[in-house]
Task: structure prediction
Amino acid sequence: MSRRLVGSVAATLVMVLAAGCGGSSEANGKIELSLGLFSDFGYDKLVEEYMASHSNIKIEQRKVKMEQHNTQLATQLAGGRGAADIVALEEGVVSQFRASKDKFVNLAEYGAKDLKDQWAGWKWNQGTADGGEFVLGLGTDMGSLGLCYRRDLFEAAGLPTDREAVAKLWPTWADYAKVADQFTAKTPNVKFVDTGRNVYKAILDQTEEGYFAKDDSYIAEKNDKVKTAFDTAAALGTKQQTGALEPFSQDWNVALKQGSFATTTCPAWALALIKAGAGDAAAGKWDVTTAPGGGGNWGGSFLAIPKQGKHPKEAYELAKWLTAPEQQKRIFKETGNLPSQPKVYQDADVQATVNEYFNKAPVGKIFASSAESLKPTYRGTKDSKVGPVFGTALTRVEQGKQSAADAWTQALKEAADAAK
Amino acid sequence: MTATRTETEAAPAVSVPSSGEPKRFRLNSWDTRYTPYLIIAPFFLVFGIFGLYPLVYTAWVSLHDWQLIDGNQGFVGLANYVELFGDAKFWNALFNTLSLFVLSTVPQLLAALGLAALLDRGLRGRAFWRAGVLLPNVISVAAVALVFAQFFGRDFGIVNFLLGLVGVDPIDWRAETWASHLAVSTMVMWRWTGYNALLYLAAMQSVPKDMYESATLDGASRWRMFWSITVPSIRPTILFTVVTSTIGGLQLFAEPALFDPGFAANNSTGGSDRQFQTLVLYMYEKGFRLFDAGYAATVAWMLFLVVLVVAIVNFSLTRRIAGKG
Result:
């Protein structure tokens, strides 16, 4: 047995070593470009097309989970090797990587500034530094906010099911909380919302400054908007109107399938996740409407080019092509990822798009109008470190481990540590 | 196990050079004296590169303000260590690590002993059972954690369902400290009990059978024979498993990480209030989520010291206990 063990250990080692030596760049005269992505950017067909029209380019996509992607990228940047030629930076962490911008190519050197007008102004700004002189990344999609709800569960609770009527129920988040009370009174065994955390994040994403002021100073303690968002979400948790679920986790999928919650905040990209979790049996039961409190943005990404890559120019050409209006439109039609370019989301074709699964909701229209009224939140350099602290605080409230006040106090303390 | 094997393999080599002419003899003596070192040299070479160098480098990093991406931001001396000693999250992680270690290792080794004793008896389909106990260890930890995380689900988990049958209210396995430790320990036990049982079994089979025969003649019970003959005879193996499971248990990472549904998102704290955040998870949070490599290196070094201390304590304790049989 032991010899076999040694053999298998050796085999594993060889495999690990072989896997470690991945980064080749020029095979048989072709320039190889790698794309470091997470979840679904909808690039599969586009990449094939690009290779067909550029015979000297070979493209490889690397897809991992988002958290793993960010961690890997950080270590690859630190080590000076191993990063893909083009990497996706998610909106939540782009400010963190912006602080290490010397590890990235300034895309302005290749003329990226000329493309500026393609994007919504705030989207462009999120991807730049030094007052727009340094272009870190080109915007892909964005995550303008909607609210998803179960029609059958609303009907059972005696609430309207038509999406216009539902939108009228909750112009503000306070109204949303009132609807939650009505809902719980009628159907106490069904949770009104999956998690208070997403409600909190959605409310906060509708403000211009969250944890950090626009000069990057830490203001969570004195920003009433953070407190209001927290209190609103925590109240839902205290009243046990939330499912206390980890968003997008396996438990969340199970709850979707069981139909154990009635609403969830949904940025454009979340529709695919809900559909995957709830399955075909729930087709037509979910619907999308306007979120309380107006437009907001959650998520969306950028394509950036690490300096360590060997072909920055070719990588830039590819990134430029992938984020160009024509391609964004196609991606929206295929995956539902919302374009971050006004010309595209105002396009008649995009506006007319409906989502069959979500009771034929006119998602193009809903998300585009949400994008129109959107005030993007300023993300501080340490936003991605501070944010999760408030999320876990809300989980403690939902689990009944702490009162909302205690959870808030502890969160502020931990957040101040993280912001140091 | 490795220790005992090198002993037995080295032994015949010493007894070889007794005959032959002087020149040959000299070569032989050189051969016998240095070949063993030569043979184990690659291990130490590899250990130097992949073990010692990172260890020293980590110590070096821990003395700096070191950011993961941007690198060295200047020497800070022992400041990281000073901060660590006042860091409640560190002590919490240390407590969790020790608690999980005790909860998983003690029952695990005892169960492994019992299992090995059962396997040592003439069972039908012996090979099947022996291979079977190793199966949980062969399955990838990610798969095990995924399945167990579902077993211990709050709303639709099978454990809560079974508890409900006997009238116990559903338990939120991730919210309560003790519950989460129990759940994570179960995972560890599931993976490692069979492995340790096989090690014990191998040792038990080399215990001379005549000892049992004479004990039987003296009228000793099975229980008595187990504690008075079997356990003392396999002492070296017990010591070995205690040390390896100490090292493994204190470095617990994958099981608690995957038990936390937030790990895949950006919330890898091991529970909403760090209920099951181990030292390695805390190190991961500091290093790879907050990008504070200097502080993470400090945690790593403290973990190293803790493992060292606990391993030494366990080693001497077990030697004394097992030796008394």
